[in-house]
């Protein structure tokens, strides 16, 4: 591991030292860019709580707003909610959000952050999405990509901590209306389980990620 990776591992074990009052000297150098972009992650950043992984896994707020507009209405599952960036925006556009995370600290951050944004129509579940029996109209999947050290050259959905193929097959038991949120260097052919729409997601003129839609979420116009 690199010195930065070791720093991350050490810091993540100190939960009391990972939630708020952040400053540059508490982040490894390869994460300083996230600190400088903190108000693009949450416009109300001064009031939110975030753990170390949340810095590089939360969806920037403007992208989360766009996704919420695409997925508005009904009940939506945010299967890997993290510190709640997407959950908050879904709550503004959907009737109900079921927000799930297997990390208790991140889930508590998400609950706090939802309160900061005044969102109340959220059911938070601490658990493993892959093991839960759930019902919803649509599911949003932003699974862990593997951290800041994930393969930057070519991303395979089955290289994630939870195989993307397994996640998709599990989700099909809930609904056909699925959105995958994945890195910009994904292998598109791996996502062609059925009819699909790939949407490039840009921020500040730079391609950041892909939103991959299935079922009735596909824009057919």
Automatic annotation (TrEMBL):
Enzymatic reactions: a 5'-end (N(2),N(7)-dimethyl 5'-triphosphoguanosine)-ribonucleoside in snRNA + S-adenosyl-L-methionine = a 5'-end (N(2),N(2),N(7)-trimethyl 5'-triphosphoguanosine)-ribonucleoside in snRNA + S-adenosyl-L-homocysteine + H(+); a 5'-end (N(7)-methyl 5'-triphosphoguanosine)-ribonucleoside in snoRNA + S-adenosyl-L-methionine = a 5'-end (N(2),N(7)-dimethyl 5'-triphosphoguanosine)-ribonucleoside in snoRNA + S-adenosyl-L-homocysteine + H(+); a 5'-end (N(2),N(7)-dimethyl 5'-triphosphoguanosine)-ribonucleoside in snoRNA + S-adenosyl-L-methionine = a 5'-end (N(2),N(2),N(7)-trimethyl 5'-triphosphoguanosine)-ribonucleoside in snoRNA + S-adenosyl-L-homocysteine + H(+); a 5'-end (N(7)-methyl 5'-triphosphoguanosine)-ribonucleoside in snRNA + S-adenosyl-L-methionine = a 5'-end (N(2),N(7)-dimethyl 5'-triphosphoguanosine)-ribonucleoside in snRNA + S-adenosyl-L-homocysteine + H(+)
List cellular component terms (GO): nucleus
Q: Which GO terms describe its molecular function?
A: RNA cap trimethylguanosine synthase activity
The record ties this protein, via Pfam families, to: Methyltransf_15
Q: Which family does it belong to?
A: Belongs to the methyltransferase superfamily. Trimethylguanosine synthase family.
Question: PANTHER family of this UniProt entry?
Answer: S-ADENOSYLMETHIONINE-DEPENDENT METHYLTRANSFERASE RELATED (PTHR14741), TRIMETHYLGUANOSINE SYNTHASE (PTHR14741:SF32)
Q: Output this protein's name.
A: Trimethylguanosine synthase
Originating organism = Boothiomyces macroporosus
The lineage, from the top, is:
Eukaryota, Fungi, Fungi incertae sedis, Chytridiomycota, Chytridiomycota incertae sedis
């Amino acid at each position: 591991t690199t010195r930065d990776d070791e720093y991350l591992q050490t810091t993540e074990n100190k939960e009391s030292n990972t939630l708020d009052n952040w400053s540059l000297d508490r982040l490894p150098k390869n994460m300083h860019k996230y600190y400088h972009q903190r108000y693009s992650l949450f416009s109300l950043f001064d009031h939110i709580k975030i753990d170390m992984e949340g810095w590089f896994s939360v969806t920037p707020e403007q992208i989360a707003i766009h996704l919420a507009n695409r997925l508005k209405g009904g009940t939506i599952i945010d299967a890997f909610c993290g510190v709640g960036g997407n959950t908050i925006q879904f709550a503004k556009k959907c009737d109900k959000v079921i927000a799930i995370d297997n990390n208790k600290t991140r889930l508590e951050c998400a609950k706090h952050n939802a309160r900061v944004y005044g969102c109340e129509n959220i059911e938070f579940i601490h658990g493993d999405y892959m093991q839960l029996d759930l019902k919803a109209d649509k599911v949003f999947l932003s699974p862990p990509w593997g951290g800041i050290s994930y393969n930057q050259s070519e991303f395979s959905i089955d290289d994630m901590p939870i195989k993307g193929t397994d996640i998709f097959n599990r989700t099909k038991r809930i609904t056909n209306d699925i959105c995958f949120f994945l890195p910009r260097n994904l292998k598109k052919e791996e996502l062609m389980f059925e009819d699909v729409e790939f949407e490039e997601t840009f921020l500040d003129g730079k391609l950041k990620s892909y939103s991959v839609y299935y079922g009735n979420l596909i824009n057919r116009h």
